[in-house]
Structures are given as structure tokens and as C-alpha cells.
């Protein structure tokens, strides 16, 4: 901890003072800020190793819960930066939601000083371990695969990772495409350089160029300062473009130009900036559909697809299902301080027989929920409940229920489930179609146990 820098964001000056006094002898620097709207500028000039973030602010941004909003902003700017949420006892449900949205942990006010230091030390230690050389992807704790289909995939990854070939990762939502992209980077010759991830499918036309290529101050109305684009930020390392199959033809043309010329021109500038990146892309769109030129440019496919990797869905991975389930069981039993150690035979059979439309992500959330709710030391079949979001017939012929048959709450539940399913579990896109914020959608998902 001695060489670490901690950013503390809380609008209570007493909290800022207490944390600063507690940590000033423990770490090299404590950065305190009462206004969360300063977070982007702080992260631009400082390099904190961990953030302590309050969950409730009286700010000008009205999201229903500012803590979740700013957690999302931090993770978009610094995906690998650990964030610990500070919450009141009455907001434990929101704190659990924050874990699902990327928070590393949470502490409840008033906390015990020893407990807070233990949490911080553990996360910083974990971060340091991640900086060390990683073992082969087959031994990665979160990448578990002993089935034949996964061993074949791991063999391909180990072969292509040390090269500089551009990779296209194909597979259904929730199969772990982002883990594969990370594993490829860690085994590459660029492992010591940046790994930058961008969900390009969520970028609007107006944000696409600014986010990827950067902009100069004054380039457009809200450009109050220069911004480095993700291509430039990844220079020397790996750029991972997720959901590449969902970008428009106009965006594809701009991306192709950059890849061909190996340079970017920030908005508001005429000066090209050379780039040296290894490109990894991912999509849930089948390659045959991408080959339709009315949807995707073939010249761009060839640029991004020197080698393609097909990630098998979880339902095709046999006993890997139980291996992954045991990993999540151990992980969440430790996180929630439960003494749960195993699944009984009925639970194991239920896990193996389920078809997992939501893949590993659905299994993870189901195990996490089971650990939270269970009272005993062994999980039974009744403890394992799969997400209602995925509970629609696979042929898409779900019988629509009419408003006359339900009260308003039930109608809202059905509408939310249908929209989230339509977008394959993509919360950002579902929230946009429903006309509500991500935070509001998460509250409703929790309310209706979806």
C-alpha cells in the first residue's frame, strides 16, 4: 500500500477528512474530492490505484442514484481501476447492484477502520498480482475449460496470441469473448502495453469519432478540453472493439480508413497521429450475416479478421458447466462471507440440464443470487433459480400477454423482460428503447426479480 494512490469522492467533508487521516500513513497519496463531476478531469491528470466512491450525492445529475452513474463513468474511463462503493446500511441492495456493474467491493457507513484498510489492501494486492506475468490462458482462474471444444479453442488462442494478427472473436452474448480478448493481450508481445476496450455498438454517430479518434478543444459545442481517442490511448498495445457487428456502414467506413492508413486525425485537427495497435474485435453476429454487404463491408471484414475464433455456447461445454459453477460458488461465498461449500446432486443435475440462453453470464448471476439467498452450506436445486429475462421459448414464439389481463405492474414487468430479451441482455440498449436510465432499469429488474 505504501506506493499506492487513493482517490476518495464523497460530498461529506467529515468523511473525506476521516479517510485522509486514516490513510495518509498507509499510502503515498490520498486525493479527496467532494464534487463527483470533477472525476473525469481528476482521472485525466492523476493515476489513482483505487477509488473510494460514495453512492449518494447532491449533484446536478439526476439519475436516481448518482453513485451508480459515476461508477459507470469511472469504468468507462479506466476499466481496470478498482472502485469501492461507500454506502449507508439502508442501501445494501444498491451496493449489490454496484457489484454487478463493476464495483470491486463496498463498505457500509460507519465502517471499522481495520475493515476498510483490509478491503483496500486486498484489492491493491490483487491488482499487483494482475501486473505480474500471467499463466497460459487454460490456467486462468476465470477461464475454465476442460471440455473438448474448449481445449480446441484454448489451443488456437495459445497459437495466435504471440503473433500480431488481427483477431475476430465470434460467439453468443455471455460466452466470455471479453475474457478471450484479455487473454490474447496478456500472452502477446504487447502485454506490457495498454489494453483498451471499447463497446463500439453502444456509441452514437456523434460520439463514435470523438471516442475512437479523439478531439481538440472547441471541435464541437461540448469540447471543453482536448481528448485522447481510444486508438491513441492503445498505441503500442491492444485495442479491443466489442460489438463490432452493430456499427453502421458510415462508422465502418471511418474505421476502415484508420486501419488502412494506420493513423488517426482527431476532430478539430488536421494533423494525423500515427498509431501502432493490435486489433481484436468481437461480435455476436454470425460471420455469414456479416458477409452481407448491405450490413457490413467485406473489405473491413478482411481487415479485422486475419484469424477468427468461435466461442462455443455454454450448453455445448458439458461438465465445464459444473467447473465454472464451482468457481463462482467459491468466489461469491467468499465475497458474501457464506460457508457454502458445494452443490447437492439435484442442483448439479439442474445445472447440467439447463440450456443457458444467457451463457456464462446467466450462470454467474444465478450462482451469485443462490449464494446470497441460501441459508445452508450445500446448495440444492431449489436454490438455483435461472433469470426470468431468458425465460422465453427459443423459437421466439412467446405468447404475448394483453394489457387487459394484467395490472400496471405486471404489464411493466412483461414489457421490460421482452425488451431486455430483444437486446440480448444489453442494458444500455434496453434502457434507451424503454426511455429510462440504466440505473432506473436496474431498479426495475431488481423489483421484478428479473
Describe this structure in words.
The chain is of the alpha/beta class. It contains 18 helices and 16 strands. Helix 13 (320-335) packs across helix 15 (359-373), helix 16 (408-422) packs across helix 17 and helix 17 packs across helix 18 (438-447). The radius of gyration is 23 Å and the shape is globular. The chain starts with a strand and ends with a helix.
Write the SSE topology.
Layout: E1 5-9, H1 13-23, E2 29-33, H2 39-45, E3 50-54, H3 66-77, E4 83-88, H4 92-100, E5 105-109, H5 113-131, H6 148-160, E6 167-170, H7 177-186, E7 195-199, H8 205-213, E8 214-215, E9 227-228, H9 230-233, E10 238-242, H10 249-261, E11 263-264, E12 273-274, E13 278-283, H11 287-290, H12 298-304, E14 307-310, H13 320-335, E15 342-343, H14 345-353, H15 359-373, E16 378-379, H16 408-422, H17 427-434, H18 438-447
Parallel strand pairs: 1-2, 1-3, 3-4, 4-5, 6-13, 6-14, 7-10, 10-13, 15-16
Antiparallel strand pairs: 8-9, 11-12
Helix pairs in contact: 13-15, 16-17, 17-18
